[in-house]
């Protein structure tokens, strides 16, 4: 199971956009500079994000991108799906042909894990991430580590 760079960068770029599009559209060049992501790679990602209606583009001077909706309504799972990513724990991509054309003995376990990951990522919005980022800046310890009790996983369990 692996979330590729494409999915990670898409989530990072969308979170950056959510944190900076309060007044004006955000240019991909600005996101690129802040997040150290190639501008050409961002252009590819935002083309897919735009086609999935997660962002809108604004042309002209001062143009850029804006979220197409409230950050509380955009979940991480939809961002990952928009860039053609799939967090899948199976070896067969869910097709159940992992063992010479049939499901392997542990296929159902990995399918269930994939579903749980999707449910987890569907329960986290960009707004959740914005709030977490702001609170982590305030609570970050002197060595740069985040306190374990503040992780999203623990927050969702309560």
Biggest sheet character: 2 strands, antiparallel
Low-confidence stretches: none
Q: How would the global form be characterised?
A: elongated
Number of DSSP strand runs: 2
Please tell me about this protein's structure:
The structure is a single chain. By secondary structure, the chain is mainly alpha-helical. It has a single domain, classed as Winged helix-like DNA-binding domain superfamily/Winged helix DNA-binding domain (Arc Repressor Mutant, subunit A, Orthogonal Bundle), CATH 1.10.10. The protein contains 7 helices and 2 strands, in the order H-H-H-E-E-H-H-H-H. Strand 1 and strand 2 form a beta hairpin. Helix 1 crosses helix 2, helix 1 (5-20) packs across helix 4 (76-82) and helix 1 (5-20) packs across helix 6. The model has no long low-confidence stretch (mean pLDDT 84).
What descriptive keywords fit this protein?
single chain; 158 residues; mainly alpha; 7 helices
Provide a short characterization of the protein structure.
With 158 residues, the protein is mostly helical.
Summarize the helices and strands and which ones pair or pack.
Blueprint: H1 5-20, H2 28-35, H3 39-51, E1 55-58, E2 64-67, H4 76-82, H5 107-122, H6 126-139, H7 152-157
Antiparallel strand pairs: 1-2
Helix pairs in contact: 1-2, 1-3, 1-4, 1-6
